[in-house]
């Protein structure tokens, strides 16, 4: 059975400020979707709202996985249902080794009912698996001993996100890659890594400006967000058009979309 | 999970055999409550000590009685000296009742997976940890190299000259009120002498020496590391240690001679009724290295500032300290580094955590004497406050009498960042697991210096604390 992540008429605010004004989207396992749109249109907000960040309030609409409304679920419950968000700027967790962190994460994801203090995946089994994944992704095994994201370069942080993706094997992966300033190494890491990992078991939503990201991961569906709504959905050609001509044509086609905010008022990226 | 069933049978038989339940009757000798010259003389007599030690004790008692309580640090208004038994000589079968051990402590032992025998030892239900078989051969090895590792009482009897040469030279009884108290009533503790050039490559642990009661109230430890030698000594344990004694006042003196190395690791997790007031000091001579690793998890109030006096050029000192203060706890901990000679260096890393209304303070001193040129000192003190009921304070003292030195002090206070919590939770960790992981990461610089089994237990203990199931 193919799982479906269904977003229905989603309205999301950050504090008092409405950002998403009725988003509709359906992602099935095995599909690759791209979400594009100018800065401030609400793309990252969608990513954070899906993952369950406490600062993002769903004011109406719903998020469902296979008919189960997860809008009230905490971030960890959503993760255990198979949702994964690869962050744009992964935060540093000092003193916590990559291997220790991943061992806990993997144990929880694979055994969602795991009680605290028991059932951690065995050390030997885990070590073997993480080494295999790291080899496949062309990563130095020393990586696992480093402290999570601490002193990592941009590319290394992206590699870490992809490694997590590889180990956690989510049903739905959301990649928040809206930073147009990303160095090319980082972009390459993500696009190649994703290409290796996606398949019929994974529904992917790539939020990006980079057409390069989409080279190795051709989307079946390209959505354009404007003013907190998805105004157009097309195929790869739409992505080409946006890359070549910017958003001017899309804006022209949807003059009624809410105007862009003239300055970013919210602390979170939109 | 039932904790009582396997142990109950032991205690029941014991109770039947002796026909009573009061734990104090299990002692072969117990002084009366309170402290005076007669009791101190009695202690010395029971131990069959030389006259000089008896006089030393009596002199110390005078000093103790003449000194006022410190006006700083923690709240000691509930500490009533007259209510304390200052000396108890345990019967061979120290039979405290397992039932007397508080339920939450018994539960923690289960959660930590501590073996039955060790549980009893930790709870003071058994006098010694039966490790004779395992450690017997280690001790033979040490003896062959001329290493002396025994308890302080035995050392006084068996190595009187060596003992007298160093005892009381690092911490004289007049140093502070509690050093005076310990000097008057001390009993037990470790005595270690490492001969020139001998490097002991495994940690000596307090429970290796099984010939006297460990974790006594007034332990006195003396360690002498001769030139070019090295030793790592570990005492205490991470599991909560139940003590019915409310005052623990230990003294640790260490002499690290030219070119020698000494590391002293302590983890204390005394039960919440204990006042833990400790004076620890080391003298580090030319080109030597002294390290204190100090973990403070338990007790009602701990006041402890491991100190290193850098006596000759090239001496280095380092103190790594963590303090975890939960509900009803006050950890007043830190370090002291005194630079008495040029070209010496010191480092203090202090990590403190407060939770559920706990209070943890860093109290530290860096002192540089005149003419101690070219010294370097670096202090990092980081505090993590986990909720709005909890408290953290910093009392750094820096006294520098020489210009040509480099002294740094960095401090930070933080709470668990929302973005860190969210990141970990978005990978499936519950909020409690995520918080525990962040706290564990916070203390990692210290934990990675601990012997493996301590590190594992410490991390496990932090997890339990974060769950809130352990008081």
UniProtKB/TrEMBL annotation, chain A:
Alphabetical list of InterPro entries matching this protein: AAA+_ATPase (IPR003593), ABC_transporter-like_ATP-bd (IPR003439), ABC_transporter-like_CS (IPR017871), FeS-cluster_ATPase_SufC (IPR010230), P-loop_NTPase (IPR027417)
The protein's name: ABC transporter ATP-binding protein
Recorded family membership: Belongs to the ABC transporter superfamily. Ycf16 family.
Span of domain ABC transporter: 5-252
Keyword terms, alphabetized: ATP-binding, Nucleotide-binding
Alphabetical list of Gene3D superfamilies matching this protein: P-loop containing nucleotide triphosphate hydrolases
PROSITE patterns the record matches: ABC_TRANSPORTER_1 (PS00211), ABC_TRANSPORTER_2 (PS50893)
NCBIfam families documented for this protein: sufC
GO terms, molecular function: ATP binding; ATP hydrolysis activity
């Amino acid at each position: 059975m193919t799982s479906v992540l269904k977003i229905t008429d989603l309205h999301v605010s950050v504090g008092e400020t409405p950002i998403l004004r009725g988003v509709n989207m359906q992602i099935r396992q095995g599909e690759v979707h791209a979400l594009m749109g100018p800065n401030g249109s609400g793309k990252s907000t969608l990513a954070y709202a899906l993952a369950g960040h406490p600062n993002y309030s769903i004011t109406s609409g719903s998020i469902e996985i296979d008919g189960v409304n997860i809008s009230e679920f905490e971030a960890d419950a959503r993760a255990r249902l198979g949702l994964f968000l690869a962050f744009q700027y992964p935060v540093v967790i000092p003193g916590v080794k990559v291997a220790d962190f991943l061992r806990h994460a993997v144990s929880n994801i694979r055994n969602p009912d795991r009680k605290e203090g028991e059932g951690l995946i065995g050390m030997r089994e885990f070590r073997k698996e993480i080494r295999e994944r790291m080899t496949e992704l062309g990563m130095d095994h020393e990586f696992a001993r480093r402290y999570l994201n601490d002193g990592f370069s941009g590319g290394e942080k992206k590699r870490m996100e992809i490694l997590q993706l590889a180990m956690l094997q989510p049903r739905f992966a959301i990649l928040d890659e809206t930073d147009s300033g990303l160095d090319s190494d980082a972009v390459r890491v993500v696009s190649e890594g994703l290409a290796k990992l996606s398949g019929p078991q994974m529904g992917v939503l790539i939020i990006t400006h980079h057409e390069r990201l989409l080279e190795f991961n051709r989307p079946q569906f390209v959505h354009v967000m404007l003013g907190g709504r998805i105004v157009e959905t097309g195929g790869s050609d739409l992505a080409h058009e946006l890359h070549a001509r910017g958003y001017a044509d899309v804006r022209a086609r949807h003059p009624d979309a809410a105007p862009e905010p003239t300055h970013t008022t919210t602390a979170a990226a939109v | 999970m039932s904790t009582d069933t396997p142990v109950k049978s032991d205690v029941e038989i014991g109770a039947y055999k002796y026909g009573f339940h009061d734990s104090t009757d299990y002692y072969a000798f117990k002084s009366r409550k309170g402290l005076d010259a007669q009791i101190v003389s009695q202690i010395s007599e029971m131990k069959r000590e030389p006259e000089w030690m008896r006089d030393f004790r009596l002199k110390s008692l005078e000093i103790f009685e003449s000194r006022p309580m410190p006006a700083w640090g923690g709240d000691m208004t509930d500490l009533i000296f007259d209510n304390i038994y200052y000396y108890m000589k345990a019967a061979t079968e120290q039979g405290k009742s397992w039932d007397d051990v508080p339920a939450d402590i018994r539960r923690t032992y289960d959660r930590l997976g501590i073996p039955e025998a060790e549980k009893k030892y930790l709870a003071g239900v058994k006098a010694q940890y039966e490790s004779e078989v395992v450690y017997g051969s280690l001790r033979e090895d040490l003896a062959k190299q001329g290493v002396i590792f025994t308890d302080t009482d035995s050392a006084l009897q068996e190595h009187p000259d060596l003992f007298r040469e160093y005892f009381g030279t690092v911490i004289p009884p007049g140093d502070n009120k509690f050093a005076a108290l310990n000097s008057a009533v001390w009993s037990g503790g470790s005595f270690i002498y490492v001969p020139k050039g001998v490097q002991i490559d495994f940690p000596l642990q307090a429970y290796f020496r099984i010939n006297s009661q460990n974790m006594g109230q007034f332990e006195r430890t003396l360690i002498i590391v001769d030139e070019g030698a090295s030793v790592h000594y570990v005492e205490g344990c991470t599991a909560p240690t139940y003590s019915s004694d409310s005052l623990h006042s230990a003294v640790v003196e260490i002499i690290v001679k030219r070119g020698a190395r000494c590391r002293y690791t302590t983890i204390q997790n005394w039960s919440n009724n204990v006042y833990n007031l400790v004076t620890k000091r080391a003298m580090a001579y030319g080109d030597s290295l002294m390290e204190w690793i100090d973990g403070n998890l338990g007790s009602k109030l701990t006041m402890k500032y491991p100190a290193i006096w850098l006596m000759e050029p090239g001496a280095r000192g380092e103190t790594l300290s963590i303090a975890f203060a939960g509900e009803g706890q006050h950890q007043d901990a830190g370090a002291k580094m005194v630079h008495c000679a040029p070209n010496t260096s010191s480092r203090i890393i202090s990590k403190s955590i407060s939770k559920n209304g706990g209070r943890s303070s860093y109290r530290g001193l860096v002192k540089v004497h005149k003419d101690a040129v070219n010294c370097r000192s670096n202090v990092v003190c980081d505090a993590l406050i986990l909720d709005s009921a909890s408290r953290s304070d910093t009392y750094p003292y820096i006294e520098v009498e020489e210009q040509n030195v480099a002294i740094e002090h960095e401090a930070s206070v933080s709470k668990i960042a929302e973005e860190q919590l969210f990141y970990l939770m978005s990978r499936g960790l519950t909020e409690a697991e995520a918080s525990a992981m962040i706290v564990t990461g916070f203390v990692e610089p210290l934990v990675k210096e601990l012997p493996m089994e301590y590190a594992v237990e410490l991390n496990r203990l932090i997890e339990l604390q974060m769950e809130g199931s352990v008081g």
